[in-house]
């Protein structure tokens, strides 16, 4: 463990001039005896084995302090602001590939990105000038004096309306009217409230206006609400208190049946894969444990994480996932809500390998529910440490059995991605692309947006406009 004291205006923290060693465990504590306020860390370069070798940053001098970040892969130019002025930096590597490591510069009295020159830096916090917002003061917004006028906040292609939002001309769209209607655009939505940073959570749409976010993995020192709701019409987040709340979990699934949300599986206590089934009554906001966790290897349902689930009628179908006993599951489990009974669904079709971290969408064709499953992390084979899939599988299920067939492959193999069905297009966004059998330097995550046309059975690769956040 190393202690660093700031002696000059800027300092450098590095793992060393050569590639880091296998099984490294290194810790640095940064303190400032002059107590000059917030500390700014800038990652000038970081090259580690994706998803296995990590750099952790804490606001404080211990690992029980508030964790701010966990970095892996290839990163440069990222900044982290530490309010307490004291930081713990911890680096971990496994036995496999050795990369060049990292260089970090740090200084006191500075703000993220220098507030993009659109604000004043006060004790590490940006105080934005009029017309700007965001932690970096990098987002233009309408002001009261801009109402009913053309404004640079609307890209000069719209006017600021009475609610200080942009009303775009007919040929433009986006929060700031920044793109033609013939172009796709991804942007950071300006929201009020806070739902707490998390990953591997679940989200479900209720009544077409609210997105319920449940569970997810989060850093230490963070007091996240287990349930948070995003109001689409008001662009606002609200933490929802519930009764008899389950233990926090991630890599689980949720489906909605009438006024009840059903939550199945996932990882609890950071290491236990569970087969618990919970229900949440949306009227009373009370959770009910429908079946207890059963640790037996032959339990039905089998405990899984990283699976996918879909509701047909009153039956919840659970596809694949990782089991602590059987590895990557290829079976389909089913829960019938009206009878509260679990079963294994017979499946007809060519051999299918189990997988983890795949995506699922569904649509109705000729009065039958059609399920599409894309990508996922597959069982190792022939000496390879892992495989990532680009396969698209189509399922048709009824109350007796499922049948499947393999459709065309996508352009980018991914897992832990997301997918949605929009206007007969299956849109696949991002995902982890790391292949453990390769030691080459590569990004951890894909910035690709893939699309599969369910009518034409054609896959495409979109290059979306304004997608700066896909690799974050």
Automatic annotation (TrEMBL):
Pfam families in UniProt: Beta-prop_ATRN-LZTR1, CUB
Domain of life, source organism: Eukaryota
InterPro entries (alphabetical): Beta-prop_ATRN-MKLN-like, CUB_dom, EGF, Kelch-typ_b-propeller, LZTR1/Attractin, Sperma_CUB_dom_sf
A GO-annotated cellular component: Golgi apparatus
Transmembrane feature ranges: none
Keywords carried by this UniProt record: Disulfide bond, Kelch repeat, Repeat
Domain called CUB: residue spans: 17-109
PANTHER family: DISTRACTED, ISOFORM B, LEUCINE-ZIPPER-LIKE TRANSCRIPTIONAL REGULATOR 1
Protein name (Swiss-Prot/TrEMBL): CUB domain-containing protein
Organism name: Brugia timori
